[in-house]
Amino acid sequence: MKSYLAKPDEVEKKWVLIDADGQVLGRLAVKIANILRGRNKPQYTAHVDTGDFVVVINAEKVKLTGKKEQNKIYQDYSGYMSGLKEQTASEIRKKHPTRLIRDAVKGMMPKNRLNRQQIGKLKIYAGNEHPHEAQQPQVLTQ
Length: 142
Prior knowledge:
- It is a single chain.
- The chain has a four-stranded parallel sheet, covered by helices on one side. The protein has a two-stranded antiparallel ribbon with strand order 3-4.
- The relative contact order is 0.23.
- It has helices at 25-37, 68-71, 89-95, 97-107, 113-119, and strands at 15-19, 53-57, 73-77, 84-88, 122-124, 138-139.
- Helices cover 30% and strands 18% of the residues.
- It is of the alpha/beta class.
- Strand 3 and strand 4 (84-88) form a beta hairpin.
- The chain has five helices and six strands.
């Protein structure tokens, strides 16, 4: 018996809508990463992009458990001497609320060229509105 390996032109990409309101960040990021990679489909193939497009709304209302809102540190380095900038999760939420979800999902993806192709299918919006109504995304329930 032969194993089935999906080919890039055979894959049908769909759109999925996820509401992040009140969901825990890590658990939500696992769901999103699996959908982007195609792990939720029977024709999943590791070296082929079999995943779907994901639209996340209400990113500013995602929940962090424990004291992560004050204690979790996000680091950016400019490349210059003493160019390290550290911000807490609450500061990131105020300035760039979509970054919390994007960084969590990106950390759960494989570190290769396929990652960059798959992370491009992730669309995150801080509010309730999104411009992807024409694609008719399916609402994902817990």
